[in-house]
Design goal:
Elements lengths: L9 H5 L105 H31 L1 H9 L1 H20 L1 H5 L3 H21 L4 H24 L8 H24 L3 H27 L11 H27 L1
Helix pairs in contact: 2-3, 2-6, 2-10, 4-6, 6-10, 7-9, 7-10, 8-9, 9-10
Length: about 350
């Protein structure tokens, strides 16, 4: 049997040196054909949209991953493909930032850390919102104090009906606790403003009732001193380099001191009125709440160790409002006790 009677091997059929002596075309190679029914070309980088070869004809080097290609069937995946059962590659995770009002250039502002300030425009907008709410609260309080002080029938009515005063204290405590301790109602519009309005009316009634027991001159004097103290403290907080926000523990102790002193004073004065003890308690309260006003003002304006988040505009207005009203009531007690 001659050499031409046997079918050539795959390598011989692909060799350009092999040819039929009779001029007939070479017979096809034995074995299973590759995908597509045609012999595989030499390894090359596949283009987009092509299927890689099957596991029987794996090239010596894995195909690089190309967009739009399927992973090789079976066996270990080629380079550029995720391992079987693994999720696809994701871009690096970027922590979301809180959406803020644009600063004029159309780019949203965010915060690098909770309570941080990355934009002067964000800070100024937040401060304007807080002081606008605060001005509305103080306007309501001053109006109620004026009515309770100058309108004689109202003045007599609130003195003869102390039950309304105690009810206003209960409403004041409940709304204060809800606004301070519950983040949901404090941040959810319009419930935050509704609760703040109820709180303002309750505290305004308490302040007006206390003012009705003092002379008109004492009320005006306490109001004037309160305005001067608030302006001085605010200007000081904007200009000073002293950071009151880093003294949170000290202010916690001062608050406990005022509370304990108030309880002791109330118990003692319920048995016998002692003017100097009443004035001492009022003086301590006025000083402590003046420091609290400086502390809360620096939390509001930022650029300190701690600051209030821009979402907490209700909490910011509430804190400063309570400080101002408490300063007024303590000063009124001092001036009223001194004038008797």
């Amino acid at each position: 049997m001659s050499k031409s009677d046997f079918p050539p091997g795959y390598d011989d059929s692909r060799s350009p040196l092999y040819g039929s002596q009779t001029g007939d075309p070479a017979p096809p190679a034995y074995g299973f054909p590759a995908y597509g029914g045609q012999p595989q070309p030499p390894p090359y980088a596949p283009g987009p949209g092509m299927y890689p070869p099957g596991p029987q004809t794996q090239p010596s080097a894995p195909y690089p991953g190309q967009p739009g290609m399927y992973p090789p069937p079976g066996g270990a995946p080629g380079s550029g493909y995720p391992a079987p059962g693994m999720p696809p590659m994701m871009p690096p995770f970027i922590p979301p930032v809180m959406p803020m009002p644009s600063s004029g250039g159309g780019e949203p502002e965010g915060f690098a850390a909770p309570g941080g300030w990355d934009s002067m425009a964000v800070r100024h907008t937040f401060i304007r919102k807080v002081y606008l709410i605060l001005a509305s609260q103080l306007l309501v309080t001053v109006a109620i104090v004026a009515v309770f002080t100058f309108v004689h029938p109202v003045r007599v009515f609130v003195r003869e009906n102390p039950g309304i005063y105690w009810a206003s204290i209960a409403v004041y405590l409940v709304t204060h606790i809800v606004l301070v301790c519950c983040k949901g109602p404090r941040r959810r519009f319009p419930w935050n403003l509704i609760l703040l309005a109820i709180f303002t009316l309750a505290m305004s009634y308490m302040t007006g009732t206390m003012s009705s027991y003092y002379d008109t001159k004492a009320v005006f004097l306490a109001l004037g001193i309160t305005v001067i103290v608030c302006i001085i403290v605010t200007m000081f907080c904007f200009q000073t380099k002293v950071d009151f926000t880093s003294c949170g523990g000290l202010f916690c102790v001062l608050g406990i001191v005022v509370m304990v002193t108030g309880i002791i004073t109330t118990i003692v004065l319920s048995f016998k009125y002692i003017p100097w003890l009443h004035m001492l308690y009022a003086a301590i309260g006025a000083i402590v709440y003046t420091l609290f006003l400086a502390y809360h003002t620096q939390l509001l304006i930022g650029n300190r160790k701690h600051s209030i988040s821009p979402e907490e505009y209700v909490f910011g207005a509430l804190s400063i409002y309570v400080d101002i009203v408490q300063i007024f009531m303590f000063l009124l007690q001092i001036i009223g006790a001194a004038s008797k």
